[in-house]
Amino acid sequence: MSQTPNISGAVSAPHFYCLSFADVDRVLEIEEQVYSHPWTRGNFHDSLYSAHQMLGLQDASNNLIGYYVLMPVVDEMHLLNFAIATQHQGLGYARILLDHLCASAREQRFLSILLEVRLSNLRALSVYTEYGFSEIGRRKSYYPVVGNLREDAIVMRIEL
Ligand SMILES: CC(C)(COP(=O)(O)OP(=O)(O)OC[C@H]1O[C@@H](n2cnc3c(N)ncnc32)[C@H](O)[C@@H]1OP(=O)(O)O)[C@@H](O)C(=O)NCCC(=O)NCCS
Fold it and tell me: What is the pTM of this model?
């Protein structure tokens, strides 16, 4: 029987917690699994030194399911990283992470969340659009692509 993403249920009891330097190894395991151009250890350390909000969702056995990184910019939160481990994808955890980060930003009185996503990342685009994010612009050739090419970013925002 597959486990359903129920953050209050006793079966899997996933819960959120603040990631620290001690978690970077296991974050990198997922990061390198899911991205063609993953963040480096240095990127995560920089984020932690900058006091970005880095939250992980882990199950009852403390296995990391996914994580997100938020950077406050005036009255807007920027979603810098958002990932679910491959074996946990397709189960609805993305919405649980989005619910959590939106609620957290709202509680801190931020007015909106901004993110960038690769034009080719149809899965993430579908998740964000379905959640209520809207495209507000594009950044030309923003992302590197294998083979020395570049790819546009779609900039999306949701009002809180
Ligand atoms: C993007 C990501 C977080 C989504 O998590 P997930 O667990 O796969 O998401 P869910 O299962 O909740 O939802 C996936 C949705 O995308 C849809 N989908 C799946 N594959 C798709 C594809 N190739 N094209 C379009 N939509 C797709 C599914 O049908 C599902 O929609 P539904 O809920 O209406 O059925 C996850 O895939 C991931 O970590 N990807 C790698 C990192 C990444 O790209 N992060 C975003 C950076 S901007």
Answer: 0.91
